[in-house]
Amino acid sequence: MRNGAIPDIVIRRLPIYVRTLRRLAAAGIDSVSSEELATHLGVTAAQIRRDLSFFGRFGKQGKGYDVRHLIEEITRILHLDRTWDVALVGFGRLGQAIAHYRGFEEDGFRIAAIFDHNPDHIGQVVNGVVVLPDYQIESVVRESGIKIGIIAVPADAAQQAADQLIAGGVRAILNYAPVILRLPPGIWMREIDPTSALQSLTYYLEPAPIPDSVLSPGSFTTSWPGSNGGRTPGSFRA
Ligand SMILES: NC(=O)c1ccc[n+]([C@@H]2O[C@H](COP(=O)([O-])OP(=O)(O)OC[C@H]3O[C@@H](n4cnc5c(N)ncnc54)[C@H](O)[C@@H]3O)[C@@H](O)[C@H]2O)c1
Questions:
Q1: Which CATH class is domain 84-192?
Q2: What topology does CATH give the domain 3-77?
Q3: Contact status, residue 168 vs residue 137, Cβ threshold 8 Å
Q4: Which is the closest atom of ligand 1 to the Cα of 155?
Q5: C-alpha 116 – ligand 1 centre gap (Å)
Q6: Residues 160, 82: contact at Cβ < 8 Å?
Q7: Per-domain boundaries in the chain
Q8: Would you give per-residue pLDDT tens digits along the chain (238 residues)?
Q9: Exposed/middle/buried for 85, CB within 10 Å: 0-12, 13-18, 19+?
Q10: Ligand 1 mean position to 121 CA, how many Å?
Q11: Which of 94, 116, 131 to mutate to test the pocket of ligand 1 (most atoms within 8 A of CB)?
């Protein structure tokens, strides 16, 4: 099945399935029913079955899912059966934290190139990677064959960073800058915006100023993609 035929919201849930399944495997659990998996995730078994049905038949009637097989399959579907090199643009407070975070490597991502604008940052070395000037983004990304970029620059520099990454061949961007980027077709983006997430949480801390019925649930999510937008206290925590 072509990538485009599967709803993006389903793709967003797959990493959470893998993470949960890995936890089960580490606990020595070999097989799991969709009901049991649903309990771990705080979603319905029907949703899990529906999501997985996009990719084929994984469970056996009455036997549930083979945990290791399902991990392998979802890992293959997400192309996580390899290490992906990532270009990081912005080596400020956030960029440095990202560059030093070792957890990405465990999950198949290697910060392979780092760029910044500030001469004080250029030339620094993190895990063997030298911080390069931003004017080299396009050429280095192209020569290295890097397809994923992380943007950790101020909002007013983010579009330029995206354009440079894309010019070098990047096709997937994780954007931390609080700005909407204009992207050409064929480029995928995820945004991480803690401030707006916090701002949307404060809605629930006081009585609602507008009737609940005016809001349509499920359009924006942070904790569990596509369920109820995290509107129910105690719903799935990633
Ligand atoms: N720090 C956080 O906790 C946090 C949290 C959420 C979102 N963000 C967002 O992440 C981004 C970075 O935040 P920060 O706190 O690290 O900022 P920062 O000012 O500490 O770092 C930004 C870095 O980007 C570099 N830069 C500026 N223009 C550039 C360009 N054109 N090309 C390459 N590098 C360039 C700067 O030299 C600097 O090193 C911002 O958009 C911010 O809103 C930060």
A1: alpha beta
A2: Arc Repressor Mutant, subunit A (1.10.10)
A3: yes
A4: 41
A5: 9
A6: no
A7: 3-77, 84-192, 196-238
A8: 445 589 999 999 999 999 999 999 999 999 999 999 999 998 899 999 999 999 888 777 677 899 999 999 999 999 999 999 999 999 999 999 999 999 999 899 999 999 999 999 999 999 999 999 999 999 999 999 999 999 999 999 999 999 999 999 999 999 999 999 999 999 999 999 999 999 999 999 998 776 666 666 554 444 556 554 444 454 443 3
A9: middle
A10: 12
A11: 94
